[in-house]
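Can you give me the bound-state structure? Components:
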Amino acid sequence: MKIPVVRDILEANERIARQNRELFDENRLLVINLMSAPGAGKTSLLERSIDALKDEISMGIIEGDIQSSQDAERVARKGVPAVQINTGGECHLDGNMIRDTFKDLDFKGLQLLVIENVGNLVCPAEFNMGEDYKIMMLSVTEGDDKPSKYPLMFRKSRVLLINKIDLLPYVDCSMERIEKESRRINPELTIFRISCKTGEGLKGWYSWLREQVNNKKK
Amino acid sequence: MKIPVVRDILEANERIARQNRELFDENRLLVINLMSAPGAGKTSLLERSIDALKDEISMGIIEGDIQSSQDAERVARKGVPAVQINTGGECHLDGNMIRDTFKDLDFKGLQLLVIENVGNLVCPAEFNMGEDYKIMMLSVTEGDDKPSKYPLMFRKSRVLLINKIDLLPYVDCSMERIEKESRRINPELTIFRISCKTGEGLKGWYSWLREQVNNKKK
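Here's the bound-state model for the whole set.
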């Protein structure tokens, strides 16, 4: 009885996600869905990316959290339009929640919309929202066994950002193992090793993002 | 349509959890449900706890993961009976999955059963399995804003283990903020600051566990 219900929810979500995507495409808006475990550094990445790119790319942010608006406040302080979704218990964002923000976020003038999902390595990967790309972040403090334990998110993502490389000297984590196992699950994965604390490795990420925004403009 | 279905699932789960609990109580078995975000250090805590306590407390472990049996192999190497549950996509364990392990895990002679949940700060807190206590772990690398962002798990837990304190010099994380916000959500919370890497602070946790096992014996 449980499985058909879940399938219905996923199918209904797919329909809404496709409608969202059509709207994003009409507006030539690049949309990325940023996912990770809690505390991997998604909001820090956004703060860095806004500082680096806001003069050349007009962007908006949707923040997803169970509760609180701390993340939207953090990115709004950087001077970009931000909307907070409180899921009120739900462990992921879905297409409908994104559609509900359209009244609060005028994306007519935007080139890039970043949706920061709820911190969770599991469920967010199952729910499309109409995004162009899923981007996932893993921090080295979480350990190098995560690709084989949470394969779906690695399989669905276009980019893997390995964050907190400044902490590598203090943790037992093999970058080679993360990269090897991630690529075994998803050979197409683009991987950047970064530190949102020191800024190391972020130029490659900015270039990738710039390129996708330009491609979507055409 | 969605909410009633979820309620049915939760109600059905509660019934099974109560049945599990009766069986645990009949056997004077202390059962704890260990939860955290991915990579916070649950399995490392188990390895440490087994080494410290296995000569005085007979224990068994149930490992919950989406996929893979790496965690069960890690704890089995320590010489305790271990069963791996692969949820096959589900982001949490539930009462039924635990009931299904009873054929593989003879807990007649056991005093302590530790259930390591799927790494996820959200959904596991909603599903009882018949355990005596929920125990949660937060690592300092996840940041000090987690209590207000994921309040349910903090509210439902009896103990909060703050792990990876050996990394405090290298991260921006206020222990005071974590403890203050956690206690605002749950004034009854017992908190231990620990490092599963260095062993710091673990004696308090072992004493707590020993005491609960003794109480359950009576």
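A couple of observations. The interface with chain B takes residues 2, 5, 9, 37-39, 65-68, 70, 89, 91, 118-123, 126, 139, 141-143, 145-146, 148-152, 164, 166-167, 170-172, 197 of chain A (CB under 8 Å). Chain A has a mean pLDDT of 95.
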